[in-house]
Amino acid sequence: YEHYRTGDIEKDMQIMTKIIAAKLRQYPQIIKAVEARGGVDWLKSCSHIIGVRNSRWEGIGMECNFIVCVVTAYQTVLDEL
Fold first, then answer.
1. What is the reported pTM?
2. How wide is the angle at C-alpha 69 spanned by C-alphas 64 and 73, nearest 5°?
3. 44 pLDDT higher than 90
């Protein structure tokens, strides 16, 4: 991600989503684990707090750019199955 990031949040979210989708394809057990916990609804209830002040990736649920990327990547990979 660090190599490809642009500073434009929309483009960076597209890059992050592609990276997460690739990881989900690489490790299908993650898909199964998410499904076991409730799928998209569970993901939407998650938070991503990394402790970096004013991080554009931190937040709770769909108010968090990172969680939006995770949900989008998860749905993309599920659609491929």
1. 0.95
2. 150
3. yes
